Amino acid sequence: MVSGGTFKEGVEKIRPGIYTKFKAAATERVKSGDRGTVALPLAASWGPTKQFIVINTPEDVEKKLGLPIADPSFLLLRETMKMAKTVLLYRLNDGEKAKATLAKDIQVTAVFGGAVGNGLTIKVSDNVVDSTKKDVVVYLNEDSVVRQTVSSASELVDNQYVVYKTVAGSVLENTSGTSLVGGNDQVPLNLDYTQFLLDAEGEFFDTIALPVDDTGTALKTAFVSFIKRMREEQGIKIKGVVANMPADYEGIINVKNGVVLEDGTQLSPHQAVAWVAGADASASMLKSNTFVKYEGAIDARPRLANDETEDALLNGEFVFTFDARDKAVYVEQDINSLVTFDKDKSSRYRKNKIMRILDGVNNDSRRNIMQAIKDRKDANSDIPANDNGIQLLLGMQTTYLDELQENGAIADFDSTADVEVTLNATEDGFIVNQRIKPVDAGEKYYISTEVR
Q1: Looking at the 3D structure of the chain, how many domains does it have?
Q2: How far apart are CA 15 and CA 392, in angstroms?
Q3: Are residues 224 and 302 in the same domain?
Q4: pLDDT over threshold 80, residue 18
Q5: Domain coverage including residue 263
Q6: Which CATH number belongs to the domain containing residue 151 in this structure?
Q7: Residues 105 and 85 occupy one common structural domain
Q8: I want to staple 429 with a disulfide (CB 3.0 to 4.6 A). Which of 8, 92, 394, 424 is the partner?
Q9: How far apart are the C-alpha atoms of 322 and 281, rounded to whole Å?
Q10: What is the reported pTM?
Q11: CB 201 within 8 A of CB 120
C-alpha cells in the first residue's frame, strides 16, 4: 500500500511522517478535549473590540481583559468555558471611555470604552519611604490593580486600565480617591455581528455561537448563510449554534429552550447557545452530548411536556430536559436542525455525533494533505500526478481511517476496498472516493423483564 516511488534526497522521510500525522490526527479526534475551540461574540463592558482574544483558563480572562471571570458581563463566557477547551472571545461593542481630572493639567482616561471604566478610582499619596515621591494607585471596584511610585507627573506610565495625559510642569496632588466617570456601553448593531463573522473567517475553531434573541432574524439568516458558505464553498466543516432558527441544515444547531442556574440566573434559549457551543466543540468523535448534564443548571426554562419534547425533536430542535429525580438538567438528544432527508443526506445526518465524525474526516484529510503538499514543496518537489502519488494518498487515507476504526469512530471499514484514488481527467490532480460507516451512540434502551 505504501508508495515505492523514487524521491529526491530528504523526501524519503515525508511519507512516514505523513502517516504519523494522520494517525495523530485520528487519535486526537477520538480523544476527549482535543477538539474544543469556540468562537464567541460578546457584548461586554470592558476589553479590546473587534479582535479575537484567546481564552484557555479563567486566569486568562483577568490577565488579558483585566476583569475576573466572575464579572457579570462575562456570563456567556463562563457558560461556554464550562465545556469548551478554548474560547476565541470577540467583543462586539465599544462605548464611551470613562474619564477624570486627577489634578490641574492631568487627565486620566480608561483604556477601553464601557461601563466598567466607571469602577476605576485613582488615589495619590506621599510615599512612606521617600516623601519627595508619590504613590499612584489604580483601583477597580476597590481592588488595587496597578501601583506606581513617581517623582513627578511626567513619570506616570500608561497601563492596562488607564492612560495619563500630562503637560510640562503638571504637578501631582494627593487625593483620597478620584473616580472616573462617563463610561457607558454601546448596544451592538447588526453591523458589529457582521464584522464578527467576517473576522471569524480568518480564525480556527470547531463551533461558532450566535447568542442573539428573536429580534435578530436577519442576523440569524446571515449566520446560516455564513456556515453554509464555510462548509460547502471553502470546505471548512465548522458548526454554528443559534436559538429558534429552523435552518434545516446539518451545520446548524437550533436551541429550543434555556435553563435556570444555581444562583437563580435565568438563561434564555439564545443565552444557552453559549453552553451548547462549548459542549459541541469539546465532544470527540466518540461522544454524543445526548444525556450530558448541564453543570450548574437546576431547571430547564421552560420545561417541556413529553409531546412538546417529541415535537421539538422532530422539528430539529436542541432541547434541555429537567430530571426531577436528581434535580438536574440534561441534553435530551444531541441533534442539529436538519429535518429534510434524501439519498444524499439520510436521517443519520441529524445526529451531531455522526456529523463530528464526517466533518472530522473532512477537516483532517484536508489539513494533512495540505501539510503533505507543503512538506514536498519544502523539499523542492511535488506530490506527483502519477501512480506514485496515487499510492501515497491511498496509504495516507487508509492508515488514517484504520486508526479511526481501531478507536471505534467508524465500523466495517475495509482498507483494501473502501478507498479508491484515481487521477482526474486532465491528470493534474486526484479523485479520492472513500466509504465509511460512522458509529452512532446508544441512545435508546429497550428492556423487557419477565416476571416468574
Answers
A1: 3
A2: 7
A3: yes
A4: no
A5: 37-92+188-282+290-331
A6: 2.60.40.4290
A7: no
A8: 424
A9: 23
A10: 0.87
A11: no
One-letter amino acid at 370 equals M
Residue 444 in this model has a pLDDT that exceeds 70: yes
Give the position of cell 470604552: 113
pLDDT at 366: 86
Alpha-carbon distance 320 to 257, whole Å?
6
Work out the average pLDDT over 216-232.
94
Asked if pLDDT for residue 16 goes beyond 80, the answer is: no
Burial 426-443 (b: 16+ CB within 10 A, else e): eeeebeeebebebbebee
Burial class (CB in 10 A: 0-12, 13-18, 19+), 186: middle
Weakest mean pLDDT among 165-174, 278-287, 347-356: 165-174
- Sequence letter at residue 452: R
Name residue, grid cell 429535518.
339
Domain assignment present for residue 150? The answer is: yes
Quick check: 358 and 434 in contact, CB under 8 A? no
Q: Which three cell numbers stand for residue 409?
A: 469512530
Residue tagged 453559549 (cell numbers) = 274
Q: Which of 157, 185, 213 is the last residue of a domain?
A: 185
CATH code of the domain containing 400: 3.10.450.690
Return the DSSP state at 264.
S
> Which residues are CB-contacts of 439 (< 8 A; sequence separation ≥ 6)?
357, 408, 409, 410, 411
